[in-house]
Amino acid sequence: MKALVTGGAGFIGSHLADALRLGGAEVHIIDNLSSGLREQVHPSARLHEEDITGETISDLIQAIRPDVLFHLAAQIDVQSSIANPAQDSNTNVVGTLRILQACKQSGVRKLVFSSTSAVYGEGSQYPKDESMATSPISFYGLSKDTAEKSIRLFHHLSGLPYTILRYSNVYGPRQTSRGEGGVISVFMNKLKQNLPLTVHGTGEQTRDFIYVQDIVEANLAAVRKGDGQTVNISTGRRTSINQLVDLLKRIHGPELGVEHSPARAGDIRDSCLDNRLAERVLAWSPRSSLIEGLKQTYRSILT
Fold first, then answer.
1. Residue 250 maps to which CATH number?
2. The pairing of beta strand 162-167 with beta strand 229-233
3. Which of 68, 182, 246, 293 is the most exposed place for a label (fewest CB within 10 A)?
4. How far is the C-alpha of 247 from the C-alpha of 244, rounded, in Å?
5. In the prediction, which pLDDT does 178 show?
6. What's residue 138's pLDDT?
7. Quick check: 76 and 140 in contact, CB under 8 A?
8. Do 182 and 52 share a structural domain?
9. Is the pTM above the cut of 0.85?
10. 70 and 153 fall within a common domain
11. One of 140, 162, 167, 211 is an active-site residue; which one?
């Protein structure tokens, strides 16, 4: 199999590329290295330093002619999307449209798209399942929702096979402080510097934290399963930021300090996704507990 991973020098993409190479695939990576790191690229994967919004991206993908394209490249920071919505839309919407056109022109057999729980927005019902209407409260969530709709329309018009994976809050080694799961990376870096953790708002806001290797396994399952499906990839469990702090105290030590600051605009109060459809259509379920995933992440950053 020849696989192309956009954003393959980044957090999730680099882990996915590693797993694809381990499975024997020929792996190509497209990344502009705006947030990805060259040193995270697997040594036997081929890096193409390009931007998905550029006019030459179609020619590059046609030259590679991948069997499967994993589209992870994106602007993922909620606060950046609020500060600069046009840039967010250009990367997440226009970039996706360019990828779709290239897929058609190069004969890609399957597109696997990385989406987000942010498309659901706020609401009183948890966990959220795929039948619920989307109602994003940030430009990031809106751009991902628009990209999803573009993929479905493109499939209707061209027949391109796809699976859309809506991630909950991903964390793990190689993560930066940006993005929805970035609070764990932020906290880990604070621990490394012996600084107190900053909790925005009351700390009672909840997230559905999922370990990066579970996300990788879902992407691999989607190569041959879930055609035409939009699927939540999550643990189905809510963890408050205060509970997260308590877990980190168990790992790091009870002397860990905590500071509070005001809540941030655009941040979802609570987030939890129903993963039962993923179990049915992808034969996938998460393997990593939060405490074990946190220990692995802690060791990668602090030891």
1. 3.90.25.10
2. parallel
3. 246
4. 5
5. 61
6. 92
7. yes
8. no
9. yes
10. yes
11. 140
Lowest mean pLDDT among 154-158, 196-200, 210-214, 289-293: 196-200
Q: Report how far residue 243's alpha carbon sits from residue 25's, in angstroms, rounded to the nearest whole number.
A: 40
pLDDT digits (tens, 9 = 90+) for 233-246: 999 999 999 999 99
Q: What is the CATH number of the domain that holds 76?
A: 3.40.50.720
Asked which of 64-73, 93-102, 147-156, 181-190 is least confident by mean pLDDT, the reply is 181-190
Write down the H helix ranges in the chain: 11-22, 57-64, 78-83, 85-89, 95-106, 139-158, 182-192, 212-222, 241-252, 276-281, 290-302
| Cα gap 8→42, rounded to integer Å | 9
13 dihedral zone (left: phi>0; alpha: psi -120 to 50; beta): alpha
The 3-class secondary structure across 12-33, one letter per residue, is: HHHHHHHHHHHCCCEEEEECCC
For the chain, report the end-to-end CA distance as a whole number of angstroms.
36
| Tens digits of residue pLDDT in 72-124 | 999 988 888 889 999 999 999 999 999 999 999 999 999 999 999 999 998 87
* Residues 64 and 176 grouped into a single domain: no
Answer yes or no: do 82 and 106 share one domain. yes
In the chain, how many domains are there? 2
Q: Which is more confidently placed, 235 or 302?
A: 235
Same domain, 152 and 187: no
140 part of the active site: yes
Spatial separation of the C-alpha atoms in residues 183 and 185, rounded to whole Å: 5
3-class DSSP state of 8: coil
Q: Which amino acid is located at 191 in the chain?
A: L
| pLDDT reported for residue 78 | 83
Q: Please check whether residues 228 and 247 belong to one and the same domain.
A: no
Task: Give DSSP secondary structure letters for 99-112.
Answer: HHHHHHHHT-SEEE
DSSP label of 261: E
Write out the residue range of the structural domain in which residue 260 sits.
171-206+238-271+290-302
